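Weekly structure sync, notes
Attendees: PL (lead), two postdocs, one rotation student
Agenda item 3: pending single-chain targets
PL asked that the sequence for the first pending target be pasted directly into the notes so everyone works from the same version. It is reproduced below exactly as submitted, 537 residues in total.
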Amino acid sequence: MNPINIGTIRQLFLDEHVVDRMEAVHRQFHRPVRHPANPIIESDQRWEHGGGVYLYGGTVMYDREARHFKMWYRASSPLLRTEGSGFDVAEGGYKACYAVSDDGVHWHKPDLSLREFAGSTANNLLPPSKDGKGFIRRPNLIKDYEESDPGSRYKMVYMDNIDGQWGLSKGFSYDGISWEMNVGQPHRFEKPIAPNGVLFGWDAGNEEFVHYHRKTGRVRADVDGRFVRTKSAVMRTSSPDFETWGGTHEVLTRGEDDPPGWSPSHGIDLAGVQLTEGLYIGFVDTVTRHFVEDAPADAWEGVHSQEFAEYRTELMVSCDGQKWDRVAPMWEFMRRGLWGTWDRDHVGVAKPIVHDDQILLYYLGSNIPLAANLPDHPQFPMLNTIVDGQRMGHAIGLATMRLDGFVSMDGYDTPGTLTTRLLSSNGDRLVVNARAPEAAFDAQALRPHGSLRAEVLDVRGHPIEGYSVDDCDPFTGDDLRHTVTWKGLTELPRLDGNAFRLRFHLRNAALYSFQVPDRDPRPEDVELAEPGSRGAP
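Predicted structure, written out during the meeting:
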């Protein structure tokens, strides 16, 4: 068997790529922790009234040049009934807003004076689009440090309706505030493919810009002729230059084991990042549709045929950014808030940011259904009202996770072991992201404290002399980058790319990732403070 060349790249446990066998070790999935200051942005300005403020396709980054956080989010006017049973937004009704923050928690909506609203330009609105309905729907953007034209340093894709057709439009800016909108021709997709999605940005692994969006449609709900909308697939479209887009293909569809009425996405089509050189992660908000028995017949066409019954945020993984898998199908990576909270109805997670060794997950949440912006919805009159101290509609929150904290390999009271497959690396140390608590959660319980030890095995599975489990100095504590030692020795045996295995011994300990770095570590190939950006300042 050929060894897996792990180089000096961090190895996570979202799949079993590097795992050979486990004994008394369990894969533990983790969820993000909501910030107590939530919601961090509400629709508290008149131009934001409607459905609320959204991060469907919005962008949050920690700007490495400015050294503060920036957010581009969406605000929408309420939907209006059109002829027949359709709905639309008034011209210019999809608006893009801008906010800044020093700490990522407390946000300021600056007066940009760029767009008039209700007779005043004192607002944080970006300029409207042009040549169409003036929509800026799903304002997705990145910074491009390799762009030779300073006026195109910031790149945006968004949706606008031009000549009665939705298209993927582009905008460029030198500062992320003043924009030239609808540059060039919008990219059209043949129905039922729709362009409303999430901009992955620059994919360093595939050396192209990538946009994830969806295939939509309607399916029959019963033999009486009623229909219900559905999202049948997540799509991937790429571009070598941010001008010409193509190569559209499906990356996620319904599986045989998924429940009836399940769709692979709705709002967060695939909010992904390249986490390490060979690992992509992302989120989709999978949904289930309503069935005709769920609602009175007179409410079907105007409400329940248009909305989804349940939202479930799932964690996605890919080794190449082309083929994606659900890490744990139907498991909710981030659940709705508890009853009575501002995000109790549904949530949707944007692309993650890594800042100060912490994963920041900005997300939208709502306390009423997404379809409450439909005029016929019974909760339509509640939009933006205050009920029991809560503003009704969409708002934006923050949740956090430890670095590499999506999945851990846990050993409990009975010590367990995890043995890797044959590996190769030119690194000279073993570094782990691990937690082995000194005491049990119940301080009164007489339980052994946690410990982690590791040994290095040769190709036959035998411990290399001096690197057995008995030689290893036990680790107890909580460390993102603990260097494993053997009787005080930090250097691994001379590997020179030769095959070896690692065996971790876990007792009341959680292993999140490991790495075999060298003494001259090179910069990360991906930048997670500004997800999807290209190059460096």
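Discussion points:
- The CA atoms of residues 383 and 392 lie 5 Å apart.
- The first strand starts at residue 4 and ends at 5.
Action: rotation student to compare against the earlier draft before next sync.
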